[in-house]
Amino acid sequence: MKTEHPRRMTAGFTLIELMIVVAIVAILGAIAIPSYLKYVMKSRRADAIAALSQEQGMLERCYATTFDYSKVTTPSSGCASLSTTTPNLSPRKYYSVTLAFPAAASPGAAISSYTLTATPAAGSPQANDTECTSFVLTSDNQKTSTGTASNCWEQ
Questions:
Q1: Checking CA distances to 36, which of 65, 105, 108, 134 falls within 20 to 30 Å?
Q2: Distance between CA 146 and CA 134 in Å, rounded?
Q3: Which pTM does this prediction carry?
């Protein structure tokens, strides 16, 4: 006579079920994490645009009162002070902004144009951004950028 052992009913997951869940989570993570990091990098570009807009505002206010963009480098001119030798950091410190003037036609002549350039600050996580490596804004409001992306100014 054959005796049958009653099967035990246990609640829980089998090893196969658990491995399938782990594989699904790993696949989702492999897709979601790079996408999230790319989104964060793109959102930090707004810091460069904000810094350039802020400095452009200072330059334009100075030009409106003195008719010379270069007066912004002279603290006694009554304008907000910017430097052409030391880069200014953006509000969140992801970018350095440099100011450049063209060579004056004659010594002491008023400067009527400028170029602002924002590049990732040293040690900033934005240094890894290859899509938008720099942002350039000129006095005639020309906005250009370098890198592999064509729409860096669009946020």
A1: 134
A2: 5
A3: 0.78
